[in-house]
Amino acid sequence: MRVCAALWANRLVHLIDASVYVFRAYYSMPSDMTDADGNPVHALYGFARFIGELLERARPEYVAVAFDGSLATSFRNQIYPPYKANREPAPPDLALQFERCREFCTHLGLAQFSSPEYEADDIIGTLVARLRSEGLRSTVVTRDKDLAQLLQPGDVYWDYAGDQRYHYEQIADRFGVVPERYADYLALTGDAVDNIPGVPGVGPKTAAVLMQHFASLDQLYAGLAAVADLPVRGAGKLGARLAEHRDAAYLAQALTRIHCAMPLTTTRHDLRRRLPDRDALTRFFDAQGFGSLLRAQADRLISAQASG
After folding, report:
1. What is the mean pLDDT of residues 6-18?
2. How many helices, marked H, and strands, marked E, lie in the chain?
3. Structurally, what CATH architecture does the domain formed by 2-176+259-286 represent?
């Protein structure tokens, strides 16, 4: 049994939604942590601890770390300019720390990705699809509910900070609908966090009922006459409201659906963890003014990988 479990574990790739954890560290770690030039490094420190702890805990063979490149240049902004326009720009000191987080991943032997046109979600979605064709299942490490739409049987959604794992079969109980219908569910409700309008008056409960009854947004709009018979409040008028806001629903669908075919030539072999560069890490930690904790963590990772 142990041999079979180990073989299966080696067929999992861990895909890390980095920005979630960089922001989390930025707002939770003491902001008075600075390098020799006075630049804040608290988000970098928290992110580095998170990455090290995850690697020690999961011991994955294949890893990819995906970063958001920009809040304003995604292809979704071309479709809908107000997309994410409600968000404040990242503070200048955080932008610098993002770059150092990427540098840290490289020194640690991890493949890392970023794009000005595509978001981290799209990078992860593309890798999930690409690696699935190579026989690997994915563990998506995130707190972003949107990424639940990527799961198929054998995949895992891992909310690392909340210490919760959800398998494909558990997503509907956690988020209201099965993964295949989640983007369409969000198209109906909209997403205030990303400034995406949905269908006015359609909240999570109504959208969940609709997506439990219809397999897709297309099927919903092909069968609006049946909506009046569904067990939701205001069902008699709901079909007319959906028809009135059809364009808004399909616009939201284009924004909420993760793009899984961006131009990446990456294969499974590109994501295999490399041995960390001890000398580069030492210079990196010295430049940031980091002490013994991260150095000891890096030493353990190097020793475990070299012996494993």
Report:
1. 74
2. 14, 6
3. 3-Layer(aba) Sandwich (3.40)
- List CB contacts of 39: < 8 A, sequence separation 6 or more: 93, 96
Question: What pLDDT band is residue 7 in, cutting at 50, 70 and 90?
Answer: very low
Choose the CATH number for 179-256 among 1.10.150.20, 1.10.10.10, 1.25.40.10, 3.30.428.70: 1.10.150.20
- Its pTM surpasses 0.70: yes
What is the C-alpha separation between 25 and 22, in angstroms, rounded? 5
Q: Count the alpha carbons within 13 Å of 189 in the hemisphere toward its beta carbon.
A: 24
- Interval 42-63: pLDDT, tens: 999 999 999 999 999 999 999 9
Between CA 144 and CA 171 the distance in angstroms is 13
DSSP character string of 86-118? TSPPPPHHHHHHHHHHHHHHHHTT-EEEEESSS
